[in-house]
User: Fold these one by one.
Assistant:
Number 1:
Amino acid sequence: MSNIIECQDLSYSYNDGKLETSVLKALNLSISPGESIAILGQSGCGKSTLLNLLGGMSQPSAGKVLLNNVDLAQLDEEHTTLLRAEHLGFVYQFHHLLKDFSALDNVAMPLLIRDNDKQSANKQASELLSNIGLQNKLNHRPSELSGGERQRVAIARALITNPSCLLADEPTGNLDAKNAADVLALMVELNQAQNSALVMVTHDQMIAQKMQRVLVLEDGRLNES
């Protein structure tokens, strides 16, 4: 089975004045359907940079990122956006929900952007929110939801299009222990149910141990934990 994402000798560096700083160094990574991966590393080591490269939101200094066997560097911005929307979902430490829209509207939005009809989009969004225990919060705006509820809405929004891979950057970082555990369990459950890959950047060893693979980013390279 083909990899969803593959990095080949991926490198990334940036210039700060006359000084060039190398963040990632000839890194290789393959992500298969249905697998879950945790990426650990100290703050500032490049974990979020790597996630942005995997999602096509940054360009590598050298090497390749293949998404569904397509080299992202060979696409223009429009086609990169379309490919990303088709295959990837994103969850961040901050939920980034639209504050003036209900939970239902936020989750349905990716389908509406794809030109799905509103009735069908709302039906799918309602079913997904109900499946994760938010059936009584469909019409609540983000300000009316708890931190854990907002993050669950963000996860539902990321998964509504059935992406091949979910990229998550410290998704439990702003939550208390109970909500963090609930959100993590939800992500793992949906990862398995949809057979979508899950790549999670985290600093938490306890969270990492729930993933099938644990990789440590150190000195610009990934190593199996």
Note: The chain has one domain: 5-224.
Number 2:
Amino acid sequence: MKLDRDTYGTVMLVYVLCAAGIFLLLRYVPVWWVSVPLSLGLLWVCGWQTYFHMVPDRTPAGSDTLVSAVSDGKVVRIEKVFEPTYLKREVLLVSVYMDFWDLHANFYPVTGTVSYTEYFPGMHLLAFKPKASEENEHCSTAIRTVSGKEVLFKQLAGGFARRIVCHATPGQEVRAGEQLGIIKFGSRIDLYLPVEARLLVKEGDLVKAIQTVIAEI
């Protein structure tokens, strides 16, 4: 794995703050059974944040007909909905919630051409709430496959997320499993599939970005 290029500054800031905290604890807190455990806790935070922002090296399972997971996480919602922003038709919605222990790098779910991308400023409700899909800050991206089918997905900011990174541009040729960006801290991915798609996951399933196939279209 490697550290995501868009998180160097964030991780360095965590290192600096933790180093300052450890220095103050060891310098000004004379009670070792207080200062040492707290210092070890700050070292743990450094390790966790490094892992959190890593980009995994995995074998892609998606293609122009197989939709792979955009992110690590847990499937928390599957249902038919009407997508009003871009597709403007009934689709299958698959929501994947990322918690603090999941890698947060995001990847293209299918091979094709980016047909749409748009950033929406918004609120920062807890990402597992259904209304977060419309009201939270998010970035939407659609990919059109060679067969003409379109897959839309949203990178949703959560209650603690404060930055969404998306490198997709309209007209760009992409392959399933290539990295498109990252969401910093708690967040969710909403994946909108053609209504006739054959789902290969169910609510409660844990999925891995790149290597878990969500559906066949």
Note: DSSP finds three helices and 16 strands in the chain.
Number 3:
Amino acid sequence: MIKLVRIFPHEGSGLFAVHFPEKPCDEFRALFDFWSDPELLEKFFEANTSDLQQSRYRYPSIEDAVLWTIEEAQFLLKVLYKRAQQGQRDPSGALQTLFRPLGPSDARSLSWQRSKVYGRHHKGWLRVYAVRLNANTFIVTGGAIKLTQRMEERSHTECELVKLEKVKEFLRRNGIHEGDFEVLKINQ
């Protein structure tokens, strides 16, 4: 069964992650572990060199892509932590100021909205994917290095779409809406 894990344990509601039973850790931790591992990143960029070598990325070397990814991931982690804290005290600093609807069809609904957050740069390739429950409550389902225009173009990003839908369905099936979230048993 899917578990929901509080990402920043002492921050009250805010940012949670999905922990799928077949995985060793939650999706947030797995994502940031990947984004901070130079060897894994090098393998990823070697396998996706043709995607990396697009003009919109200004043709970086694999080494530059690895370094940029690690730096950007560290920045993104700090920003997420800061907003999770701010959102508890000030609605104008809520997580929804970072997260955006995944696509145009997601913008129409706030309940279980598929969402994404970019790194520092809109044209950057880091993405964190989540399901929105309210302005400051998001459940991270995963993330990716997105080098293509559409998520369906590559298996690693298409997998993220599947996880988003799986979590939305879990929330629907269990009748979990924005106001019901606190009744869940959250792992600390």
Note: Confidence is low (pLDDT under 50) at residues 182-188.
